[in-house]
Design brief:
Distance between the termini: 135 Å
Structural class: alpha+beta
Shape: rod-shaped
Largest sheet: 4 strands, antiparallel
Oligomer: single chain
CATH topology of the domain at 3-119: Mlu1-box Binding Protein, DNA-binding Domain
CATH class of the domain at 3-119: Alpha Beta
Length: 195
């Protein structure tokens, strides 16, 4: 019996991790009827937080999802009992065969393993990659936003510089415009007479 096979037979019912009587009977290599009779003979060892019987509704919803090899041996009217981890532990005091003891050790390990997985879920590589991609995307958006802000500031500064240069060019043209010479103009007549 492997832990993974046992873990597949642990269900969540009423918020508890449980195993059903027929699965336990199969693992202990006893009939379900014999297991339940042993439990009833020692009922004080099984309070309601160790063992409970499923309701018709719970059983109907589960039986459609569970492939049961031992269901053939079970009367159709019989509704299974569910054993919590503590109930399974208590079964070891009721069923004392070597097979039952070995199976019980494996079952308890399976419960502990599931509890460990619940407390410390495995890291999902895809979720990790998605988180990293989200961080990278945010960083790029922030960087481009800063770049655009700088770019907008730079554009405004360049426009101001261009306007200033245009103004300076206009002033420079006015300053370098050829001036009328100061003084008297010599007329053409006076130039001829001088010659």
């Amino acid at each position: 019996m492997e832990l993974s096979n046992i873990q597949k037979k642990i269900y969540e019912i009423r918020g508890c991790k449980v195993m059903l009587d027929f699965d336990l009977a199969e693992m202990y290599q006893v009939e379900t009827r014999a297991l339940n009779q042993s439990v009833k003979r020692n009922i004080r060892r099984f309070p309601c937080d160790f063992m409970f019987q499923l309701t018709n509704t719970e059983w109907k919803s589960m039986s459609s999802q569970i492939v049961m090899t031992s269901r053939v041996k079970r009367p159709k009217s019989a509704i299974p009992f569910a054993f919590t981890e503590h109930g399974v532990t208590m079964l070891s005091s009721v069923l004392k065969s070597d097979v039952a003891i070995d199976a019980n050790i494996l079952i308890i390990r399976a419960f502990v393993s599931i509890r460990h997985l619940i407390v410390n879920p495995p890291t999902d590589k895809i979720c990790e990659l998605q988180n990293e991609m989200e961080k990278l995307k945010q960083y790029i958006e922030d960087t481009f936003s800063d770049y655009n802000d700088i770019n907008e500031d730079t554009r405004m500064q360049l426009e101001l510089i261009n306007e200033t240069l245009i103004e300076l060019q206009v002033k420079n043209k006015e300053l370098n415009k050829p001036r009328n010479p100061v003084g008297f103009k010599l007329s053409q007549c006076s130039k001829k007479t001088e010659n």
